[in-house]
Amino acid sequence: MIHCQEASLALRPIRHKDVSALYGILTHPEVGRYNDYAVPSNPSEVQDIIQGDIELLLTGEGVRMAILYQEQVVGSCGIYDAHTKVAKIGYELLPLFWGRGLMHLALSLLLSEGQQYMGADVTTVQAQVHLDNLRSIKLLQRLGFVCSEPGVYQLPWPPRS
């Protein structure tokens, strides 16, 4: 588990007990609007997503972390394709918590403390974002990501100090 005590925020690998919380997040209309995959139609689909995420962790191909704020799951963020040259990140957060800096903090923690989940071949971390998701674009820019093409933002890896 990765903690940020002063913000009451923590990241931990997603687990099957998170099905209900993740289902609520992924089916929220505002989250679904910007997500790059279909909105799950039932909790068993989320169970399958979580199982896939656990398998990614076990094979070293990535990780999905639950974002806990005041011990409540309010979102998730993850690293995918971590065994390739271009690892991907993805993230979602309940809209009730948008605009509070939680995702900036969560992704900062993921990128700094989550290096253990990155393979040795990774040279770039990439995020895809909907062109009208201005909050997400600004978030990526604040984290040092640069637009490489419309809707695609990249960060050299490892980050330069």
TrEMBL record:
PROSITE patterns reported for this sequence: GNAT (PS51186)
InterPro entries xrefs: Acyl_CoA_acyltransferase, GNAT_dom, N-acetyltransferase
Domain (N-acetyltransferase) ranges: 9-161
A Pfam family it matches: Acetyltransf_3
Cited PANTHER family: GNAT FAMILY, PUTATIVE (AFU_ORTHOLOGUE AFUA_3G00765)-RELATED-RELATED
Name of the featured protein: GNAT family N-acetyltransferase
Organism for this UniProt entry: Pseudoalteromonas qingdaonensis
